[in-house]
């Protein structure tokens, strides 16, 4: 991804993934992450550049990067 998402996209992400939303990982581009597709967690915050931070059930806290990683609501 080049650059950051627009302000409008960030606002959309904040509405789509409010604090407490349960999510499931579809894919992540981080080769060092212990997460695997199917892992579940709870959204803690969406920051001002559109990163969705998740407290994963496996004990990890890791952000989901817009346009790089994929999650879905459950």
Provide the fold topology.
Blueprint: H1 7-16, E1 22-27, E2 40-46, E3 52-56, E4 61-64, E5 70-73
Antiparallel strand pairs: 1-2, 1-5, 2-3, 3-4
What does this 3D model show about the protein?
With 74 residues, the chain is mainly beta. The protein has a single domain (7-73), classed as SH3 Domains (SH3 type barrels), CATH 2.30.30. Helices cover 14% and strands 35% of the residues. It contains one helix and five strands; from the N terminus they run αβββββ. It has one helix at residues 7-16, and strands at residues 22-27, 40-46, 52-56, 61-64, 70-73. A five-stranded antiparallel sheet has the order 4-3-2-1-5. The longest helix is centred in the first third of the chain and has 10 residues, at 7-16.
Distance between the termini: 26 Å
Instruction: Say what oligomer this is.
Output: single chain
Low-confidence stretches: none
What's the pLDDT, averaged over the residues? Answer: 95
Q: Helix and strand succession?
A: HEEEEE
Radius of gyration: 11 Å
The proportion of strand residues reads: 35-45%
Number of helices, where a helix is a run of at least 4 consecutive DSSP H or I residues: 1
Key features of this structure:
mainly beta, 35% strand, 1 helix, 74 residues, SH3 type barrels, 5-stranded antiparallel sheet
What is the compact description of this entry?
The protein is mostly beta strands and about 70 residues long.
